[in-house]
Amino acid sequence: MTRYRRYSNPYSVDVQRFSIYHREERGVRRSLQVGDEVNVVINEMDELGRGVVHYRGVRIVVPKAVPGEKVRIRITRINGNAAQATVIKRIAEPKR
Length: 96
Prior knowledge:
The structure is a single chain. The protein is elongated and about 70 Å long. It has a domain at 27-92: CATH 2.40.50.140. 0% of the residues lie in helices and 40% in strands. By secondary structure, it is mostly beta strands.
């Protein structure tokens, strides 16, 4: 309570300054998190036949997607700068 005593109005205090949780800056794009949904165009295919796309510096592996296809995906797992996702909706077929 002693931290707040020098403030005349306790409701004008920046509570985030004393928080143990990180602060989200406005205008700064956050990195990918599990559960995020994004629209992407699959760029390539890996050796197991899964679609691969690079999004915000993260390599995302999408099973059952082919190169050139535009899909909406949901991130299911993140491991460093690699992630796995599932297809939610197919938006456009690959161009031939």
